[in-house]
Design brief:
Strand order of the largest sheet: 5-10-11-1-2-3-9
Distance between the termini: 72 Å
CATH topology: Immunoglobulin-like
Radius of gyration: 22 Å
Structural class: mainly beta
Number of domains: 1
Largest sheet: 7 strands, antiparallel
Oligomer: single chain
Number of strands: 11
Shape: globular
CATH architecture: Sandwich
């Protein structure tokens, strides 16, 4: 069959269009589409105290925490329902630091606090942080019940909270983990612009 110049133009266009589409997808910045986020944690007085870098992974969301200024020992660490770090008042009228963050993120409505390895628990439950003698703590944890993408289990725009005491992984609603000492709101971020992550040799503390 004879090929005309117009046929060759159409063939070239058909080949080029998929390549253009691939180039556009490749040019999307890291963190686009809900794949990356950061929470900058601070004390109740607003002093910077570290950060958490969050990355979408096949099993959920990897959370890498680097914080400072804690008392040595274990500290409860949770994802809270509201993306607010302002104080609020409890039922008795007492001011609660970071009280506006609300309770633990619980999209399934379990009403049950527990160990992060348990099946039925708040989606916002996470391992304790372990602070060293200088008050620094690091943690790498994959949370399987949450996502950064839009949807009912999304934690984008919610808050991360560090508590004064260890989480006992049993007591409702917050594991008897004491007052709230650090808070940060989860915000979208380009992960190639985030510094301060920890290496793969650091694992979760239980």
């Amino acid at each position: 069959m004879r090929t005309t110049s117009w046929d060759r133009v159409l063939l070239a266009a058909a080949v080029a269009l998929p390549l253009i589409g691939c180039a556009q997808r490749a040019a999307a910045p890291p963190g686009a589409g809900g794949s990356g986020a950061i929470a900058k944690l601070a004390t109740a007085t607003g002093a910077p105290a570290g950060q958490a870098v969050l990355t979408a992974v096949p099993d959920g969301v990897e959370i890498v925490v680097n914080v400072q200024g804690l008392t040595p020992g274990q500290h409860g660490f949770h994802i809270h329902a509201n993306g607010k770090c302002e104080p609020s008042s409890d039922a008795a009228g007492k001011t609660v630091a970071f009280g506006a963050a609300g309770g633990h993120f619980d999209p399934e409505g379990t009403g049950r606090h527990g160990h992060p390895d348990h099946g039925v628990r708040h989606a916002g439950d996470a391992p304790n942080l372990m602070a060293d003698a200088q008050g620094r703590a690091t943690l790498r944890y994959v949370s399987p019940k949450v996502t950064l993408a839009p949807g009912p289990n999304s934690i984008m725009g919610r808050a991360l909270v560090v508590h004064a005491d260890p989480d006992d992984y049993q007591t409702n609603p917050a594991g008897n983990s004491g007052g709230r000492v650090l808070c940060g709101v989860i915000q979208p971020a380009r992960l190639d612009a985030v510094v301060g992550s920890i290496g793969p040799e650091r694992h979760l503390v239980r």
